[in-house]
Design goal:
Layout lengths: L7 H12 L5 H10 L10 H18 L4 H15 L4 E5 L3 E5 L7 H20 L4 E3 L8 E3 L12 H17 L2
Antiparallel strand pairs: 1-2, 3-4
Helix pairs in contact: 1-3, 1-5, 3-4, 3-5, 4-5
Length: 174
């Protein structure tokens, strides 16, 4: 059952693309396909530029100072991405909602997906569930999709690294 295809998968894709920006149209297309997006047309340089703008806007939402600023930035993205929700069915996916017009170029699709998906993620799970990793020296963005809503690290690797650092600090008394 797919209740919210615009939530967790989309914010994870946005975080992945923000943390390791695609370098060209081919890489952008490949990574979007790998994330499960159906590309309806070839990816152009205009798409690449629009995708970069979408990532910049999304990164602003991640780095917002508080809930109100985060909501304001996200509302601007939603207004810029505005389209009527519509039912659609791709081969093998079944009926679902798209919050965008049909036959849109990938750059516009990503902007809308990031705006709507992030809004659904934050309103459904909590406005605090988008942040940067807490490990010193790691500034990767991530969406907190944990059950408890207290995820502090971008990955298990960073969580382990911080646990080792804390253990060593206790062992040496610093």
């Amino acid at each position: 059952m797919q209740l919210n295809p615009y939530g967790e998968d989309v914010v994870n894709l946005a975080a992945d693309l923000v943390n390791r920006r695609p370098e060209n149209t081919d890489e952008l297309a490949e990574r979007c396909r790998a994330a499960g997006l159906t590309l309806e047309r070839p990816v152009t340089e205009d798409d690449f530029g629009r995708a970069q703008a979408a990532l910049n806007a999304w990164e602003g939402v991640v780095d917002a100072a508080g809930e109100q600023e985060r909501a304001d930035l996200l509302n601007r993205m939603l207004a810029a991405a505005g389209a009527y929700p519509r039912l659609t069915s791709h081969p093998g996916t079944g009926w679902h909602l798209h919050y965008r017009d049909e036959e849109q170029p990938l750059g516009s699709v990503l902007f809308t997906l990031f705006a709507v998906g992030t809004a659904l993620h934050l309103t459904g799970r909590g406005m605090h569930r988008l942040r940067r990793c807490e490990v010193t020296g790691c500034d990767l963005a991530f969406a907190d999709t944990s059950r408890t809503g207290r995820q502090r690290y971008c990955s298990q690797r960073c969580a382990n690294r911080d646990a080792v650092r804390r253990h060593r600090a206790r062992a040496t008394g610093t």
